Structures are given as C-alpha cells and as structure tokens.
Amino acid sequence: MLKILIIHNTYLQAGGEDVAVTLQEKLLKEHGHEVKTLIFRNHSFKTIWKKLVHGIGSILNIRSFNKVSTEIKAFKPDIVHIHNLFFTASPAILWAAKRFKIPVIYTIHNYRLICANALLTRDQKICELCITKKTPYYPVKYKCYRNSSMESALVILITGLHKLLHTWNLKNNAYIFLTSFKKEKFTGSSLNLTSKKMNVVPNFIYDPG
Known about the structure:
Blueprint lengths: L2 E8 L5 H15 L3 E8 L6 H10 L4 H14 L3 E6 L7 H8 L4 E5 L12 E2 L2 E2 L11 H5 L6 H16 L2 H4 L3 E4 L2 H7 L11 E3 L9
Parallel strand pairs: 1-2, 1-3, 3-4, 4-7, 7-8
Antiparallel strand pairs: 5-6
Helix pairs in contact: 2-6, 3-4
C-alpha cells in the first residue's frame, strides 16, 4: 500500500474539483492506502495593489514551497498527487516534490495551463488561439481572465514562465486528464508533454443504488 499526499488549492467558491478530491481521498483510504490531504486556499483581494502582490507571489510562492517541504519530511509520501495549484500553492509545490525526489501526478481539471480563462472559450464561442503559444498576448488583448488585462497578464506570466523553465514537463511524472477530449487538446500543446505521461481517468461518484 502507498502513502499518498494529495495537494489541492481551493477557489473562492467551492466547486466540482473539491468534490472530486474528497471522493478520491475516501476511495483510496477504502483500498488501504494512507492518505493525507494538504489544502491551500485563495483569498479575496479588493485592491489592485494587493491583487498585484498576490499575483506576483503566485509565480513561485516560497511559503508554499516550505509548507510542502515540511509536509513531505513529516509524512514521507510515496506519491504526491496535485489537483490544483492556482494560485496560492503555485508551481513551487512541484519544485518541492522534486527536491525530495517524490513522483508527482497532476490531475488536469481545466485548461488553465494553455488558456487564461481555463475554458477554451471567449465571448461564448470556442477559442483555441493560445493552445500552442508559450506566452500568448491574446488573453491580455481580450481580457480573458476576470475581464482584466492585468490579471490576464499575471496568469500568462505564471504559466508561460514555467513553460520556459520546463516546470510542467520535467517536474511531473504523470498527468491525468478527465476525458480523452481534454487529453487531445493538450497533446501537441505548448506544454510539450510526452504521450507516456498522459493518462485518462474520469471523475466518479459512488453508486447511489
């Protein structure tokens, strides 16, 4: 049996990703695995300055790096399974796992790594302008994230910088996509993932009978 450290960054409003994490934790425990879940939380910032400071910190959050490092030292997991790292956890948690040579699985719940608004849509239409671009300017031009050029630029800075650093590729042992369609969209994307790292595992619910 395995010791599994699940890491998840919640949004300001609870959603389906949170439910998926809870169900996965329960299922793994039922099958005899030792599981610990580490939660990071986003905060609401009302001023532009605080949003800017928080956004820059999301590029590589040293506090998150230290928090995960401490957890790994104490729990000694066999695997780290990440469900979301935006924005407080930041890509720093990938570097923390790599520091201790712990295999990482990253479940992709949306398209954030290749689309600023995470939906591959714009103005209620399909938009795939950024899929193959490492640092696209379209999100800034069209204010794709929260209808803000500044916040869109911060998202692109986070994802784009770590594409250039190969964080998304070299710091992960495997990716899980919820559907074959989603896996197809990431295949040949700016992340440059190898096919052997890409797996399809759907979300699930318990049989209600």
